[in-house]
């Protein structure tokens, strides 16, 4: 590395740098002045040429310039329109691809077995009873100014219509009609028979995998309290059931819980619960469902096996079925339920009904 200059040598070096900067500045000023002079000369030549033009020639020049500007603008406009058309075509293609995927999901859902929470389209042979209940819902919908459904609408759409109707300010008679129609509609599905058997033995086969994010449980037992007629005994049973569901919700990360007690026959009641989870339940083996046993009563377990957009409809319909005031309903309760806003909250407005 060369030693730094000292004393006089340093001053000489600084002076040389100043001279160089001054020379560069003069050169820049000279070039700018030259450009300005050239611009003035060009303007003077144009003015001189314009003096010899007739007014007609001058107008022709102006028209030509305007036409050139217009053509340029049109070209830019066409380029912009072409670009927008390309973007629109690209968006349309993306929409078609999304719609195709959704249709494929719907077709896959239609091929699945029907259960309490899954909603395949009806298809196949006509079901007069099912269509009659859809017509009953349509009558209420028409009176309330809500769009009606075709008689062969999918289970998910029928459930959504019933949910929307129950959120409206209906008369008591209309509300009863909706509740009766949806309960009767649902009963037409073979999987709606949820009368669980109290076998006292593990239901799942060894090695079976249970994986779901929502589930509906039905408890039916010959236990003395399930056979009780006394109001106080039944109310106490439901209170214990609600407390159990609170503990269960914490254990399996349930963020929505609905519960109901219904009279299955003149001699017996059964309990329903519907839960949806923030974290999927995933267990294997014959002991996988032991966590759902309430006072040694093992429930009939119906997981929500829907996926995609169908899952949301299944989730809402599952909660709706539990909280809807049906014939035989004794006591209702729900907690943290976003899917069905008209639901009663757990521990409040749960009057015993007969």
Characteristic terms for this protein:
51% helix; five-stranded antiparallel sheet; Replication Protein E1, Chain: A; alpha+beta; 354 residues; disordered C terminus
In brief:
By secondary structure, the protein is of the alpha+beta class.
Second-tier CATH architecture of the domain at 194-335: 3-Layer(aba) Sandwich
Query: What gap, in angstroms, lies between the N and C termini?
Result: 103 Å
CATH topology of the domain at 194-335: Replication Protein E1, Chain: A
- Shape assignment: elongated
What is the secondary structure topology, with strand pairs?
Blueprint: H1 8-51, H2 55-110, H3 128-144, H4 155-166, H5 172-187, E1 209-220, H6 231-252, E2 254-265, E3 268-284, E4 300-303, H7 309-323, E5 329-335
How would you describe this structure to a colleague?
By secondary structure, the chain is α+β, with helices and mostly antiparallel strands. Among the domains are: 128-190, no CATH class; 194-335, Replication Protein E1, Chain: A (3-Layer(aba) Sandwich). Helices cover 51% and strands 15% of the residues. It has seven helices and five strands; from the N terminus they run H-H-H-H-H-E-H-E-E-E-H-E. It has a five-stranded antiparallel β-sheet with strand order 4-1-3-2-5, sandwiched between helices. The longest helix has 56 residues, at 55-110.
